Each structure stands twice: as C-alpha cells, then as structure tokens.
Amino acid sequence: MTRIFSGIKPTGNLTLGNYLGALRRWVQVDQHQADALFSVVDLHALTIEHDPARVRALSRRTAALMLAAGLDPALCTVFVQSHVDEHARLSYLLECVATDGELRRMIQYKEKSARARAAGESVRFSLLSYPVLMTADILAYRTDEVPVGEDQTQHVELTRDLAVRFNQRYGETFTVPKATAPPVAARVMDLQDPTSKMGKSHEAGAGIVYLLDDVDVVRKKIMRAVTDSGREVTYDREARPGVANLLEILAACRDGDPAVLAGAYDSYGALKKDTADAVIEVLRPLRERYAALVADPGAMDTVLREGAERARGIARPVVDAAYAAVGLVPAG
Ligand code: TYM
C-alpha cells in the first residue's frame, strides 16, 4: 500500500494556503487511498525566535485544525513530531550524508536567513539543517508520496537526493519519495500582494485568510483583494496575478478549473463575491468542528497519543536499520 507522509509546522495560525495547498487534499483524497501519516512538526518551529508557550498553544491548535478539517484517526495517523524520537535520531545520520553546499542552496534558507540578517538577528544553525530534519520525517516512514504545496518541492527534491545517496553508500534502506501537488492552488498568493505567497509566519495582514477568521473578516479580506488593471476576467498568472489567485481559490473550493471559471465572469466584483462565498462555505464546517474539538482536549490527547504509538512502531525499525547500515554497533 502506498505510504504518505506530510506535516505542518506550528509557527502561526493556519491559512487558506495551508488548507488549499495541503490539508484539503489530505482529507479528501490521501487518507482514503493510502496508509497516511500527518504530523504537527513542532521541532521545525524552533528554527526561529519563538515563545515556548506560543509554540505549545499553536501545536495544539494545529492538531485540532487538522482534525477539524476532516482528518479521521480511523483512516490515518495524526501525531506530534516531537513525540516520536526517531525523527531527531535519523536527522543526525542524514546530516552526515547531506553537504553544506546543498543546504545553503535551499531557497527558503536563503530568503529567511537574509531577512534575519537584515533585521540584525542571528541565524540559527537549525534553519540551515531544517531540510535534513524534514528529510528524516519523510524517510523514517519509507514514504512513497509527500503531498505538499509548491513551496516545499525543493525540500522534497533534496529528500530524494539524500535517499538515493544513502542507499548507494550504505545499501538499500530508504524508499525514494516523490512530491505531489494539488491540481490548482498549489501556491495561494497573498491577497494584498499577489506576487508573494500567503504565509502563516508573516505578520498578520489584510492579505492572509486564516482558517479561524470570522465570516465577515474573510469576506472583507477577499472583497478588498488587490486585482489588476484592466477589467476583463482572464486566467493569466503572469499578467494578472491578482485575478488568477482569486480564480484558483474559487476553483480549488469548487473543484473546478480556473480557466473555465474565468469565462463565467465579466466583473472583478462578481468574482470576488463568489470567491468569498465559496471560501466561507468551505471553512464553515471546519470552524464548527474546531469548536467541538477544543471543548474536549482529552479526546484530542488520546488521538495524538495513539497516533504517536503507531508512528513509532513504523519508524523505529527503519531508523534502526539505517543505524546498522552506517556501521553503528547495535545496542545489545
Ligand atoms: P508549512 O507548515 O509551511 O506548510 C504546510 C503545508 O501547507 C502548504 N502551504 C501552501 N500551499 C499553497 N499555498 C500557500 N500559500 C501555502 N503555504 C503553505 C505547504 O506547502 C505545506 O505542504 N517544511 C514544511 C513542513 C514539513 C513537512 C515535513 C512537510 C516538515 N516536515 C515532511 C512534508 C513532509 C513546512 O514548512 O510546511
């Protein structure tokens, strides 16, 4: 059976980008078709300045939102990364396979480290090694497919390279995974700046729809989205990024095609209104289930504990095999 692994890091409140680029497909497709594991990858939240209490709160909120979106513990495994030691255990071995040069070439590292330096902040070593931990997350489960948004494909490429290199050097140990992206909305853009990604770690802005935003806030943000000069509604990501973004959001919510939908509109106002309605409709059940889940934290703890047990059971023998393969003496 196909094995799927993916994760979300608790560095901010989840956005419509996380939902349409990843979570929606995990719920609608992946959990039904594969042995799928989905993780709140909390260790990844420590690569930047963070407040411990906030990381703790965001980790729980992220887990609740994953379940509220429709991940069903009867169909898939949901767990918190730090509850399973194998991720950190394997990461070190993979640091011994990765090179300094290939990690410095990662786009996210270049962007985030440049931003930190410009702000006079130090850059944590873990920001550089972060994609190696992500590689460990994936390889520890002998994952076949990694469903992610477009911004993560370079990291999954690195994962493939490291898996191949490890296998060549030390013998077949890992499955070489591939990234899968949704057919539309693999890169949801900021509504106020449609040339940059809608990101949860950015400053709260008018261009970011959060999954827990109130209905009227969602509507306001979408109605005020920056569109482009001109009046025709056409689907052209290069020439009309603002309109293209709205069309993709609408298409993703309605399981439609952005180019076909473009033909149905003759004004930006009507497109915005329908997009707002579609997003509100998609988020409504999620918000209702979220409220029920946070009212019963004990039930969520049980899901996460059982998820971690199952994840450990899969990862342990794989990581043990990797330790043996590189020449480490097995514990008696
Ligand atoms: P993270 O937490 O930034 O995002 C979680 C998922 O949401 C997708 N995503 C988007 N998709 C479309 N448009 C957007 N604007 C948008 N913003 C985010 C991301 O592509 C991702 O799929 N490094 C990962 C977390 C991670 C991981 C892993 C993922 C750690 N280990 C192993 C897969 C497998 C990250 O920072 O995602």
* Number of separate structural domains: 2
| Class from secondary-structure proportions | mainly alpha
List cofactors, ions and other ligands.
tryptophanyl-5'AMP
Write down the overall mean pLDDT. 96
What's the order of the H and E elements?
A: EHEHEHHHHEHEHHHHH
Q: Main sheet, how many strands, which sense, barrel?
A: 3 strands, parallel
Using the alpha-carbon principal axes, give the shape. globular
Count all strands and give the number. Answer: 5
Radius of gyration: 20 Å
CATH class (first level) name of the largest domain: Alpha Beta
**Which fold name fills CATH's third level, the topology of the largest domain?**
Rossmann fold
CATH superfamily of the largest domain: HUPs
pLDDT under 50 segments (min length 5)? none
State the share of residues found in helices, binned by percent.
40-55%
Query: From the 3D coordinates, which CATH architecture of the largest domain would you assign?
Result: 3-Layer(aba) Sandwich
Alpha plus pi helix count: 12
Question: What do these coordinates show?
Answer:
The protein is mostly helical and 332 residues long. It folds into two domains: 3-181 and 297-326, Rossmann fold; 215-292, Orthogonal Bundle (Tyrosyl-Transfer RNA Synthetase), CATH 1.10.240.10. The protein contains twelve helices and five strands. It has helices at 16-33, 52-68, 86-95, 100-104, 107-118, 125-139, 153-170, 215-223, 241-254, 258-262, 268-294, 297-325, and strands spanning 3-8, 35-40, 77-80, 145-147, 178-180. The protein has a three-stranded parallel beta sheet with strand order 1-2-3. Helix 3 runs parallel beside helix 12 (297-325), helix 6 (125-139) packs across helix 7 and helix 8 packs antiparallel against helix 11 (268-294). It is globular, with a radius of gyration of 20 Å. It starts with a strand and ends in a 7-residue tail after the last helix. The relative contact order is 0.15. The model has no long low-confidence stretch (mean pLDDT 96). Tryptophanyl-5'AMP binds next to strand 1, helix 1 and helix 6.
